Amino acid sequence: MHSKLNYALQSSNSFNIKANCPQIYFPSSFAELQQLPELTAKHCYILGEGTNTLFVEPQAPIIIQPKFTGIDIIEQDDHFVVSIGAAENWHHLVCFCLEQGIYGLENLALIPGSVGAAPVQNIGAYGVELADYCQEVQWYEFASKTMHVLTKQECRFAYRDSIFKQERYNQGLITQVTLKLPKAWQANLSYAGLDALATDSTAKQVMAQVIALRSSKLPDPKELANAGSFFKNPIVSAADFAQLQQQYPSMPHYPQPNDQIKLAAAWLIEQAGLKGFRHHHVGVHRQQALVLVNYGSDVGGDIVSLAKYIQRKVAQQFSVTLIPEVRMITEQGERSFSSLSDINPIRDNTNGNSVNANSTAGNITNGSSND
Ligand SMILES: Cc1cc2nc3c(=O)[nH]c(=O)nc-3n(C[C@H](O)[C@H](O)[C@H](O)COP(=O)(O)OP(=O)(O)OC[C@H]3O[C@@H](n4cnc5c(N)ncnc54)[C@H](O)[C@@H]3O)c2cc1C
Question: Which residue ranges does the record annotate as region Disordered (predicted)?
Fold first, then answer.
């Protein structure tokens, strides 16, 4: 199996952070998976395209980057079954399907990353999520060295969640995803921005609109390093929301099952005055407060400090804890955000702007920095 020692990961993560791993493996077949050394006892991380990954320390653990490729299509009377290797690029898959006249994935266009990572957090956008079309997931288990097929129900998809982040976490890797895409198709225009389209719009027109909307709102990681939405939208109880709403009547909110309410993390960050905030080489995007951007830092800890600062400010104002969606990878493997130390905390100064605790006086970095 192809593998490399002392591998530089800077071009393998969309935050463009410098990190090295002692070894990286690129398994591309079942036989190669079975050759993987006993890694479960050691620290290791499965890497797709690194668009939802933050290397927090200069050293990363051993990495496995699956290289399963290929797209197979089986046509049935009323639907298509599409099986895709984990290493295929998600957006390329969406374009490929539309070119073949297979519709349904157009709302998920331009989501960066690999197909293998898509079920892990049940990727979603513009009113559609992977779970809507996922039929099954092929998953290799490290301990038994066997392949398993998990049905959609067994994957236990939820908002940015699945069994691969829960019970099956770190116990194996996804090699293939199978989607079921019905031939009977209707545009899903429920989401704001798409409702401007005519109801008889084609799938290609929907995809073009999704791409236009995303490109206008989200920075391209190739031009400005980022990992998309950094925090998940927080979910609170209806009782807690009622209290918040008294103080903030215009607070956006989305009712969920079980008497819970989803809040908009971007709105909370913006209300905390942090949209466009910049601290040296890292900051909050000017148009999209949920996206943290790296203007030129090599150090993952800088992003952690910024995220902790945002978390503190939002908690102070709303008593709501923002939880990152991005995965935090240390030399010892993945860690929870709360367990990470804030090595260079960002502090407020007396006039409400923020300065680096270690920077020279007057280096105010709120909003329009000259960096
Ligand atoms: C600009 C931008 C916009 C984004 N917009 C969206 C959006 O609209 N909706 C959305 O849901 N996400 C969005 N994201 C997040 C990201 O695109 C998804 O999380 C994507 O699925 C990550 O794919 P990846 O291959 O880069 O995963 P990585 O970052 O490499 O890994 C992410 C997680 O998946 C695991 N993983 C990766 N491959 C496998 C595998 N084969 N088997 C098992 N586990 C695996 C990793 O261990 C890790 O836990 C955005 C990111 C960016 C940069």
Answer: 339-371
